[in-house]
Amino acid sequence: MNDRYKAGTLLLAGAIGVLVATYGSLPTSTNAQQADAAWTQTRTAWGDPDLQGVWRYEGAIPLERPARFAGRESLTDEEVAQIQKVEEEQAAQRLAGAEGAAVARRSVGESPIRGNEYNSFWQDHGRPRQVSKQTSLVVDPRDGRIPYTPDAKKANERASARYGVGPYESFLDPDTGERCLTDGVTALMWQGPNGGHNRIVQSPGFVTILHEEYLDRRIIPVDGRAHGSIRQWLGNAVGKWEGDSFVVDTTNFIDRTNYEWAAIFTRPSETLHLVERFKRTSANSMEYRITVEDPATFVKPWTAVIPITRLGDDTQIYEYACHEGNYAMTNLLAGGRVDAAKKR
Amino acid sequence: MRTWIAVVGAAIMTGFAAWMLFPTSARPQAEGDAAPYTAPRTADGKPDLNGIWQAVNTANYDIQAHPARPALALLPAPPRSGSPGNTRATPVELASPAVRPFGAVGGVPAGEGVVEGGEIPYQPWAAAKKKENAEHWLERDPEIKCFMPGVPRATYLPYPFQILQGANKIVFAYEFAGASRTIHMDPVGDSPAPTWMGWSRGRWDGDTLVVEVTDFNEETWFDRAGNFHSEELKVTERYTPASPHHLLYEATIEDPKVFTRPWKLSMPLYRRFERGKQLLEYKCVEFVEELMYGHLGVVDPATGQRNK
C-alpha cells in the first residue's frame, strides 16, 4: 500500500489537492457556469439548506503561503494566468504519462521512497487544478503560516525526516495513516491521500459526512444537544445552522499526540477545539472555513478558508479497506528487522 | 499474547453484557407481528427508519441454534484422566488455554438461532469447511482482526448501528470498526471491485426498505461459528417497521457456489432510545495491532523487549 506513503509525502510537501482518478465526472465548465448563474440555495424537505453530494478540494492553493509570496494575500492577474498555464501543461503531461517535475510531483530521484513511481497511477490524469488569487488557504494569521509552538515545529521536522525512512522497529513507528487509523479530522474535508472525497448526507437532526479514506465518518447532531463527554479520535461534534451556514463545533478529542503523524497540524489532543463553517456558494461550490485552536500544538488559533467543489451525481465514495489490506505494515516491519540485523 | 486475549475478551464481554441486559430470545417473529403497524413518514413521505438500532440475540456467536458452552475456543480433545480401571467422569468441553482466564465471562450463551427452518443448506465440501473454520475460530474469524464485518453480520454484531435517510442515499453507519454502507436509492453504476460491505441498491416495498447487496469478497463470515460464503454471495435484506421501537429484519442468502438453495435468517432489531444516544467510535484497528504485528517488529511494544 505504497500509495499511503506517497500521500503523506504530498501532505508534508504541502502539495494540496492530490488529484486522484475519480470515477465520476464534473459538469463541463459551461454547464457549471449556467447552473451557477441561476442557482439559489436548495433546501431539504424539512427546510434546512441542502449540502448533499460528494465534495472535494480541487484547488491549487497551498495550505501555507509559499516564501516567494511572503507578505501578499493575493496574486496579480498575470501571476494567476501564469499558474493556470502551468497547471494546464502539467495536466497534459500527466495525460501523456510523464513523471516527476513535469507533473509537479516529486520525481523518483527526489523521493525518499524508492520505487515511488509505482504510486503515479493513483494520481488524476485529467483535470488541471483550479487556480485562484488566494496565496494560501490559511487566512489568519495574516502571514498565511500555521503558528506552531516551537515543540510542534520540531515535531513536524522530525516527522518529515522520518517519513518513508524510519526506523520502523514496531507498529508504533509508522504514521497514523500507514497504520490505517486516520490522517486526522482537521484536513478531512479538503485533503486525503487518495483524493479527499466526502459524501454529505442530511437526515432530520443529523448531518453525516462520509470521508472515503480510513472510513472516517462524522455523524453530526443538529438538534441543540450539548457536547457528549466521551473522548474520541474525531472528537464530539455538534452542529447548528446560522442562516445558510452550517456551523460545527467539535471538542473532546482523544490525545494521540504521542503517535507519529504525517502532518502535525491534523493531530488530536485533549485541548483541540475546531469550529467549522460550511456555506454553499453555488450549485457546485462551497466555502469551507475551519478555525483550529490547540495550545498543545499552536501558539494561537488559525483559520483556513477552503473552496471545495461538488462532483457529479455519479461520483461515489468507495470502500477504503486499508487495515484489511495493510501488507505495508508487515513489509515495513520485515524491512526494519533487516535494517536492525545489518547494524549489528 | 495478553493483548489479544484482551481484545477477544472485550468482544466477548460486550456481547455477554448485552445478553445479560436483554435476555430476549432471537426467535424469528411470527408472521402477523409486523402486519398491523404503519411507519411514520419522513418529510418527503418515505417510511421513517431513522434511528439507532441494535440486535439483541446470540446470532453473532452462531446464527444456528446452539447450546451454551464454556468458551468460544475449546480444547479439541480433552485427555482422559485417572488411572486404569478408575471410572472418574471425563469432561467433554474445556476452554482452550488462550481464552480460559475469562471463566464465565468468556462463555457462549445458548440461542435458538435465527435461520428459518434451522438448517443452512451447505454443499458437502462447504459443510466440511464450515466445521474446519469453527475449529480454527481464533485464527480465522475476521471479527478478531477488526476487519469490516460484511452483511448480514454487521446487523447483529453486539454493537448499535444508525440509519440516516438522506435524499436518494441512505447511510447505514455501524459502530463496529466504523464500517459504513451507502444504500443507493437512485440508479447507480456497478461496483468497480469486490468489497467487504457489499454494494447496496435499495427500494421501498410499501413500508419495507428492501436492499439488494452484491459485489462481496469472500473474506467475511456470518458469525463466530465459522459460517461463511463465497464472492458469489447475494443478500436481499428487508427492514420492516414493526412498532415505534422495533424493525423486523430479514436477509435472504444466495450463493450457488456454497449453498444448495437460498436460505433466510430473520430477527427483530430494537431502537436504542436512551436520551441523547449517539453512535460512538469503535476504532478497533488500534486494538488489534499488538495481536497482528507485535511479534513482527524489532521490538515488541507489549514487552519493550526485542523480538527473537
Give an account of the 3D structure.
The complex is a heterodimer of chains A (344) and B (308). Helix content of chain A is 20%, strand content 19%. In chain A, strands 1, 2, 3, 4, 5, 6, 7, 8, 9 and 10 form a ten-stranded antiparallel sheet that branches. Chain A has helices at 3-13, 29-37, 77-95, 150-162, 327-343, and strands at 53-56, 138-140, 198-203, 206-211, 217-221, 236-242, 245-251, 273-282, 285-293, 302-310. Chain A is globular and about 70 Å long. The two termini of chain A are 29 Å apart. Chain A has 344 residues and is an alpha+beta fold. With 308 residues, chain B is α+β, with helices and mostly antiparallel strands. Chain B has a domain at 51-67 and 115-293: Calycin beta-barrel core domain (Lipocalin). Chain B has helices spanning 2-21, 124-135, 137-140, 153-156, 285-293; strands at 51-55, 161-165, 169-174, 180-184, 199-205, 208-214, 234-243, 246-254, 263-271, 299-300, 305-306. In chain B, the strands form two sheets. A nine-stranded mixed β-barrel of chain B has the order 1-2-3-4-5-6-7-8-9. A two-stranded antiparallel ribbon of chain B has the order 10-11. Chain B starts with a helix and ends with a strand. The chains are: A alpha+beta (344), B alpha+beta (308). Chains A and B meet through strand 3, strand 4, strand 5 and helix 5 of A and strand 2, strand 3, helix 5 and strand 10 of B.
